[in-house]
Amino acid sequence: MSKGHILIIDDEDQLRKLLSRLLALEGYTMHEAPNVRAAQKLLEKEEIRVVLSDVKLPDGNGVELVQTIRTRYPEIETIVLTAYGNIADGVQAIKNGAFDYITKGDDNNRILPLVSKAMDKAVLQFRIRDLEKKIGGKYNFGNILGTSPEIKAAISLAEKVAPADITVLLLGETGAGKEVFAQAIHQGSNRRQQPFVAVNCSAFGKEILESELFGHTAGAFTGAMKDKKGFFEEARGGTIFLDEIGEMAIELQAKILRVLETQEFYKVGESKPTKTDVRIIAATNRNLEQEITAGHFRADLFYRLSAFQISLPSLNERKKDIPLLADWFMQQVAPKMNKRITGMTPAFLQALQQHSWKGNIRELRNIIERAVILTDTDTLDTAALPFDFQQGLSDDNPASLRLADMEKRHIIRVLAHVKGNKTKAAELMDIGLTTLYNKIKEYNITAL
Length: 448
Known about the structure:
Oligomer: single chain
Strand order of the largest sheet: 2-1-3-6-7
Low-confidence stretches: 394-399
């Protein structure tokens, strides 16, 4: 298995081939080019990870080529081959972005370790690039599902504000997808290459949250054994998402306001401010104007946070999107459970659309996951839904008037009532236990 692809650029055939053979013996896949033009074709065509280039080339300069490669292929590492005693070229090459330089004629003990280190760094950089692409693809606006006017309006606003680098306040019920929107706004901004840090403000007490947000110095409080970076420092250059900011203690709100106004903060136990450069996206399920009236939220912080507000619709406000979301969750969950599920019955979808979704999209995902676990066929049916969904089925649906469907639902309800005790269920329905087992098998009722 190849250790990676290396390109050697040198117009001296003998030296180029000697280096190529040497590195090939170490397990690298080698490519050769006598000039810049040929090298550029190979860079476009092959999966080059490391370049070894002479300084003086027939149609260019190796030091300048370093800068070109760094601009067009930032993950590739370049090592420059300089003439004996010409250190200035090597120093300038490093300034242009070269990994290092080596003087022609140096022994193999220097070349091989240098190439190995450059290859390790390049491979890591390519992995990071691929990971960033996957993350960016997962959280871009195109992957926010829904065709309802309500969700499309929210997406449109988020797309417009993403590159503007201003504070955004996301409003909506718990589970409506606020963090997904925050991630998409970050990926659509000029900060996409920098960290995205999400903080649930309701998950920490006041003292702990302050330390988590701003960090602390050693000895700042009992148990602070060493200096600790806070989330604002971790997010430097990127985006920090303050979820459930309405739950934050009012004393801490003043410190968030300071970050917004001055882009600096104080670590716990430190008197010198720390500079930062972050974009803040905040979210809440509370009515902050009512919280201000009640004295629980600072009006000045609200006005700074709400420079641009986006209200996210609840799932109950966009029920048109339920079939699309349910199908997507089904396709995501089923393979993880090693199940091949191809669809949902009309009755199953009807039950989903008639349900009151207090937990929003998060609750829908959980319900689909549960249904996939309980289903033994290739289709999700109402038998895999919780009891409260069964009660929500409309009796004026023509399909529900079939005797078999009504009997099936009745058995499911009774089994749910007795928590799966089949003997008790048979007694309540005044039928034999064997008859009940036959009905369960006939209607493909999954045990509750």
